[in-house]
Every structure is written in C-alpha cells, then in structure tokens.
Amino acid sequence: MTESASYIGRFAPSPTGDLHFGSLIAAVASFLQARCKGGKWLVRIEDIDPPREVDGSADRILLDLKRFGMEPDEPVLHQSSQIKKYRSARQSLIKSNLAFKCSCSRKSLPGSGVYPGTCRRKVRDPSMPLCVRVKTTSKSINFNDGLQGQVQENLNKDCGDFVIWRSDKLPAYQLAVVLDDALQGISEVVRGADLLDSTCRQIYLQQLLNLPTPAYIHLPVATKGGLKLGKRFNSDPVSQLDPVKAISKALEFLGHRPPPGMRFERLWIWAIEHWNIERVPARKTISLDGVGGFQL
C-alpha cells in the first residue's frame, strides 16, 4: 500500500438514530477504500435537520465506529457548524439568478414529482413559507460510478428545479453535502445506492458553484422485508453486536469472505490487505431475507 496524500474519503451519517447494519456497510466500505488507497478517512455528522434528530445518537454513532475499529484521521465535522457557509452559497446563487424563492410545497407538485417552474419568474403566493430552488437546464449530467457504471440524468426533465433551502429555514441536504465535500477535500464518495439519484443534482451544484467533483462509488443497499435498513424503520442497531461478527458480516455483504476464527485486530489487517472494490456486487439492493449467513 502506497501513501496517497490526495485521497480523502468520508462517512457522513445523520444523527437520526443509532448505527444500524446498513450504515455499518457504508462505513466499512468507505473506511477500507481510504485505507487501501493510503489516504485519509473522515467522519462528518450531518446534523442539519433538528426535527428528525435523536438526542445522543451522534455520540453513540461515533462510539460504535470507535468500538468497531474505525476512527477518523481528522476531527469530526458537524454540519451544524457550517450554516453561515450554506447561507452564503444560497445568496450567491440567488444573486447570480441561478436560484429563486418558491412558495410551492412538495404536496403541490404534479403526480410525477417534477417541479414545473411555477415560481421561476414570480413567487406564486408570497404569504406561504418560502423555500429556495436552483434553476435546472435541459443539459444532461453524466458521471461514471465506480460500481454502478455510467449514469446520466436530465435534471430539467427528471426532477425540475430542486430545493436547496427548505421552507422551514433549514439548508437542504443537496447544498450542504456539496459544500462540505469541497471544504473537506473529499476525492471519492463511497455511499449507498439509495443516494445515486442525488448525485447528478450534486454534480450540477458543484458546477454552478465552481467546486471540484469527487469520484463516486454507490454500494448496494441492504434491504429486509422489501425496505431499506434504516433508522426510520427501526432497524436493529449494531451497538450490541460483537465487533468481529458485525465487521465479518459487513465484509461478506461486500463480497469479501474473511477466514473464520480471526481475532479483531487480524480481521482488519486481512480486510485492508484483501479489499478490492471490484468484488463488491454491482447491484443497487441486496435483500437479507432468508439469507442465513446474514442473520445478525
């Protein structure tokens, strides 16, 4: 393994619940990708949605990562500390006529969910809470995902002008993640394929804000009962699991089967030595239902 000062990866959980197996998979993959590249691995707490946050979950997530042998190479960044930068970027886009205020709610959109440009020229109802949307174009956004392959999207057709600042006066995920990836110098984003649809929007914002575009790898998402494992569906937290068992199961999910009976320290050494992103299944989802090997 050679040192690469230019490689910086990250794991960016939201503090809306405890770490679960689906999140652990993303953490393990991003951590190993950084380690096998000889680069840095950072952790960012995406705490910009107070109504959904669970008290103490950020601290518990960080403790679980440490217990599983994954500690960031730099101090943890909390998005809540970056609100001024998000606000400045929002104002810059509005001033440049690249974004506009909008009174339309999600419920008011047509059945397709594609924003029809209602408030582009003039706010339809100034008495309503206003969000801010970025103007999209018919130009296609393309990128080559390191696992899922070529991705192309026409934002104007597929989603329309999308929200970068919410009507409840909170920054939207798309704007915050783009600014923070640039701030932290992220060179490659390794995350779940449930965020694949967001990537073209993020690349578009990077272009508008003259920010670098990292490489992207979108991992298969673990599902159970037809649903993505997640905090909102009360997926079992991994806090009570044996670290060796939990990491071994995550590695198996990612196409790497460690030898049985390995001790914790040796397991991580083996994982770093044998990690190969090409061995990860190039699928968007993998169901854990009825797969005995993944009964945690």
- Report the radius of gyration as a whole number of Å: 20 Å
Helicity level: 25-40%
How many helical elements? 8
Task: Name the helix and strand elements from N-terminus to C-terminus, one letter apiece.
Answer: EHEHEHEEEEHEHEHEEEHHE
Report the end-to-end length measured between terminal Cα atoms.
Answer: 32 Å
Question: Roughly what fraction of the amino acids lie in strands?
Answer: 15-25%
Based on CA inertia axes, which overall geometry fits? elongated
Poorly predicted regions: none
Biggest sheet: strand arrangement: 1-2-3
Instruction: Specify the structural class.
Output: alpha/beta
SS elements, strand count: 13
Largest sheet: 3 strands, parallel
Mean residue pLDDT: 91
Give keywords:
single chain; 296 residues; alpha/beta; three-stranded parallel β-sheet; three-stranded antiparallel β-sheet; 8 helices; 30% helix; elongated
